[in-house]
Amino acid sequence: MPDFMGGPAIKMRIAILSGKGGTGKTLVSVNLAAVAKKSAYIDCDVEEPNGHLFFKPEDVQEEEIFVKIPKVNHELCNGCRKCVDFCKFNALAYINNKLIVFDEVCHSCGGCILVCPEKALTEKEKVIGKVQKGISGEVRIYTGILNTGEATGIPIIKKLLEKDPEVNERALIDCPPGSACIVMESIKDADYCILVAEPTLFGVHNLNMVYELVKLFNRPFGAVLNKCLEEENPAEKFCLEKKIKILGRIPFDNELGRLNSNAEITVNKNEKYRLLFSALLDTVTKEVRHETTTNP
Amino acid sequence: MKIAIPVDEKTLESNVCPSFGRTPNFLIYDTETKESVFIDNSAAASTGGAGIKAAQTIVDNKANALLTPRCGQNAADVIKAADIKMFKTTFASVKDNIAAFIDGKLPLLDEIHAGFHGRAGN
Amino acid sequence: MKQLLILSGKGGTGKTTISSAFIKLAGAKVYADCDVDAPNLHLITGWNAEPEKTDYYGLPKAEINPQLCTQCDQCRQNCRFDAISIDEKYKVDPFACEGCGVCTYVCPVGAVTMVSAVAGELMLYSDEKKLFSTAQLKMGSGTSGRLVTEVKKQMKPAAVDAELAIIDGSPGIGCPVIASLSGVDMVLIVAEPSISGISDMERIITTAAKFGTKTAVCINKYDTNMENTTKIEEFCKKQGLPFIGKIPFDLGAVKAINNGQTIVDIDCRSGRAVKEAYHKTMKLLFEEGGG
Question: Residue A49: what pLDDT?
């Protein structure tokens, strides 16, 4: 059964997000990538990436990601403290006639280098994390990893989402949870956003957050309801109220939970879910096509 | 010698503030002249790097020793670079800690905890 | 006043479900929600009144005055965060702006200024008997430990009368978690029996250990993976960490939450297990010495 209903293959970047951790973002992104076969899975949850635990990629290549931080030439420094006073992040201190730089607090704005009247400050590179590229079957796995304690993961996301001429297939972007600036960076250029929601009171509250976010960034979007039970689903109600398209429903299922908690890719182990996620992929593809033709 | 203590209020009756970086005020107490000076801690309003700025403040006020319940890694680096000794407060009240310090009864502070690592940003 | 903090590392483990149950069981007079990114506790604590709200200001953000701007492009060239763009006029993207002030410095005509920016909102619910402190970070703001610190500060006035404060912590392991940990008497970690859940639990334990805070562990939804549950129990034994209980997955819990109730407001399996865990936690928290 073809993944596309005929027609030319289109490049599409689909971002999967939720207001909170534990809703099923990774479940959905990993399984959509797996069922799409020729695709790219991009893990933007750089603080706690775990998509790679499912795919176990091979032929992994690593690239370090750097930011620039100040370096002091103590001979030229005359202790004027203009840099200390300028720094909004308190990354510099002047103690015992010596300037100290606090790497982890520095936001790499380059301001201190500009304000120094003696040209005593230059820049050096500091590693803040890395990007790993590997392959699992036909899925290219891109994982972003931020080193513990670093100020921001945005430079890593930028690298992950660079338009790679090799990536012609569909890309599934597993976003960080929440709605902070790092999430915004992840969805900025997405062609479509899937909002994953839980059928609880908390789930609706969190869904609302990401709903506001995708509207703010003017991204086309739809919802996937996860862990669905037979009872009334507050998240479904919310989607109906706000006229959010429901792309699919994943039932609450102990078997699914078990496979997931053992880092197994469900669609490879369970036919029912292979069909479910294939149907979901078709639905999303149609939505993206529709968006492309109506809003070129 | 001058000792610095993070304090909740600007009086000697105050309690020691549990946080160093975000204490609202510091007391600079001169053990010889028995003079007390209270200064605002501008670092309290920082979104990040508060410990560093607070430490710079007490260095600039020429403290020789710091009495505090806890201290983060970054602030500790500044204090150590300034050759200021750190002591662990053992009472709630400022007065009791000063008395204990003068009697040589306060232990050195050597458990430094991981800093907040400035993930504040925006 | 003893402070109990409930953390989980990963989101979605059931921290808030358990915190709310503890708050109900304790009849806690003081409690707080430090998950400022996505606060949920207020949804089941049944306050009818509106809270007292205070604006929370983050770092000021840059703003360009188009009247003074000469379009020299210095600001855009020097901005390391791609926050300045031109679309007829030069504009700062408040979401990308990190408040570094470089643009203000390089502008030759003083057209760029730093203006205070509301990054969130503090909320305080209170009546004669109870106090509940929480906050909501505005979309796009960097997660802020300082806002968490403010949430905890709001609890201070009540410290005089209350014996116990319960704090629903933030997920993750970064700055907001460390801010939550500051000054608490005990941490209860709610662990999830999954590979990522275990890895996050270990990271939190390492962080709490640095603070020298009394730490205990419980497992939520333990029956979703018995193998991992055993792993966690063995880990706690090996590390000498008090293991205070395991709570089963329970659809009854979902029902309760969706009705705006805690799991101890109705009769269900998870509620009964939580009661046991609660008593063990209180014993540990109030026992003399130890830690």
Answer: 87
Please give the pLDDT value at position C206: 81
User: Which of C282, C283, C263 minimizes the C-alpha distance to C274?
Assistant: C263
CA dist C36 and C19 (Å) reads 15
Residue A99 distance to chain B (closest CA, Å): 10
Residues C122/A48/C233/C237 CA torsion (nearest 10 deg): -90
Residue A6: what pLDDT? Answer: 42
Work out the pLDDT band at C291, boundaries 50, 70, 90: very low
The share of chain C scoring above pLDDT 90, in percent, equals 55
What integer pLDDT is reported at residue A4 of this predicted model?
A: 42
In DSSP notation, A1-28 reads --SSSSS-----EEEEE-SSTTSSHHHH
C-alpha to C-alpha distance for B113 and C178, rounded to whole angstroms = 10
Q: Which residues of chain A have pLDDT under 50?
A: 1-8
- Domain topology for B2-102: Nucleotidyltransferase; domain 5 (3.30.420)
**Closest alpha carbon within chain C to A52:** C196
Q: Is the pLDDT of residue C39 over 70?
A: yes
Assigned superfamily of A13-44+161-294: P-loop containing nucleotide triphosphate hydrolases (3.40.50.300)
The pLDDT tens digits of the residues spanning C139-177 come to 877 657 788 889 998 998 876 678 899 999 988 766 788
Chain A residues with CB inside 8 Å of B48's CB?
89-90, 105, 151
Cα B40 to Cα A162, A227, B7, B23, B44, distances in angstroms: 46, 52, 10, 9, 9
Does position B120 have pLDDT exceeding 50, yes or no?
no
Q: Which of the following CATH numbers is that of domain A66-127: 3.40.720.10, 1.10.10.10, 3.30.300.20, 3.30.70.20?
A: 3.30.70.20
Contacts 24+ apart (CB under 8 A), B102-105: B102/B31
- Write out the two tokens for B78: 């500044």
Q: Min CA distance, B95 vs chain A (Å)?
A: 29
Q: What is the pLDDT of residue C44?
A: 85
ipTM of the assembly?
A: 0.84
B109 to chain C, minimum CA–CA distance in Å? 13
Confidence of residue C182 (pLDDT cuts 50, 70, 90): confident
Interchain CB distance below 8 Å, B56 and A84: yes
CB contact under 8 A, B56 and A95: yes
Q: What is the mean pLDDT of residues B81-102?
A: 91
Residue B121, pLDDT > 60, answer no
Q: For tokens 């969805």, what's the residue? A: A187
Nearest Cα to Cα of residue C97 among C52, C66, C60: C60
Cβ of C144 within 8 Å of Cβ of B120? The answer is yes
Q: How far apart are CA B40 and CA A265, in angstroms?
A: 56
Question: Domain residues of chain A, as ranges?
Answer: 13-44+161-294, 66-127
A56 sits in which H/E element: none
Report the phi/psi class of residue C96: left, alpha or beta, with left for phi > 0 and alpha for psi in -120 to 50.
alpha
Give yes or no for residue C255 having a pLDDT over 70: yes
For a pLDDT cut of 70, what percent of chain C falls above it? 96
Give ∠ CA B74-B75-B76 in degrees, rounded to 5: 90
Say if B41 is an interface residue toward chain C (CB within 8 Å): no
Q: Write out chain C residues lying below 8 Å of B115, CB-based.
A: 178
How is chain B split into domains, by residue range? 2-102
Q: Which domains does chain C have, with CATH numbers?
A: 2-53+121-286 (3.40.50.300), 59-116 (3.30.70.20)
Please name which of C127, C126, C125, C147 lies closest in space to residue C55, comparing C-alpha atoms. C147
